[in-house]
Amino acid sequence: MRDSRIAFRFRPVEGGRTTEPSIGFGADTIRLPVEIRLHEAPRPAETSKGPPARLPSAKPSVMPGAGRNHPDRDNNPLDMRSGATTRRFGSTTDDGGFAVFDSAQTGFAAAASRFDRIGGTLDHIVSVWSPAADNNDTAGMQKQIAAAAGLSGSQYWHDLSDAQKRAFLQAYARREGYHGGGPQAG
Fold it and tell me: What is the mean pLDDT of each run of 10 residues along the chain (186 residues)?
């Protein structure tokens, strides 16, 4: 009978990093292409002598923002949940299950990549991204987002020009509560 115990091993490296974690399944060991970075604890904010100190974070361009929503706080304009797509675009952490990106442009690029994989009509993308089962007004969102982008829900994502895709992404981001700028060309 095969040994079903799992063992985790980490080999320390200089600079506060640990690389080459491995998972052992009995006699078999798998090396994972993962890097784990350790971050220092946040410093206390300054007092009345000046503005609050910037806190070190896994999300470098995001300032702490009590009361701000996920799209704004996490550079995640379309409110993407953490997963394989978000990790490919550099999301190393999450905020209550939502991906955290280093910039809003990266968040838009991750969403566009996901839309490329979903494909189909704009209405179909909205129904997959914001299903009614998650308490979304999917039909209302389909109409509102397409109209705000100057498009029709029956248009196919892959048939849109880059400018139309940016308009759709921006309209969707606004519907999700994002207040920043739109996706940039390029």
Answer: 46 48 49 46 43 38 52 86 87 81 91 93 95 92 96 96 95 90 70
Would you state the pLDDT for residue 185? 66
Alpha helices, H only, the chain: 70-73, 84-88, 104-118, 122-129, 138-149, 162-175
pLDDT value of residue 123: 96
Token duo for residue 157: 């994502």
The beta-carbon contacts of 163-172 under 8 Å, at least 24 apart in sequence, are 165/112, 165/115, 168/122, 169/77, 169/78, 169/108, 169/111, 169/112, 169/115, 171/144, 171/145, 171/146, 172/78, 172/111, 172/126, 172/129, 172/145
Integer-rounded Cα radius of gyration of the chain: 21
Q: Does residue 173 sit in helix, strand or coil?
A: helix
* pTM, rounded to two decimals: 0.62
Query: Running DSSP on this structure, what letter comes out for residue 50?
Result: S
pLDDT of residue 165: 95
| Residue pair 172/151 in contact by the 8 Å Cβ criterion | no
pLDDT at 50: 44
Domain boundaries, given as residue ranges, for the chain: 1-39, 58-179
**Whole-angstrom Cα distance, residue 58 to residue 73?**
13
Asked whether 80 and 74 are in contact (CB, 8 A), the reply is: no
